[in-house]
Specification:
42 residues; 0% strand; mainly alpha
């Protein structure tokens, strides 16, 4: 039982880390895109 719990926790942590990494990678791109759009508008 404990092994299963540990594995589940590890999987959850890995998923959270992956999501955080994806967000960190996507956010700068989003900001750059928004800035480029503002420049194009003005």
């Amino acid at each position: 039982m404990q092994l299963q719990l540990q594995l589940q926790l590890q999987l959850q942590l890995q998923l959270q880390l992956q999501l955080q990494l994806q967000l960190q990678l996507q956010l700068p791109q989003y900001f750059i895109h928004a800035i480029q759009q503002k420049k194009a508008l003005s």
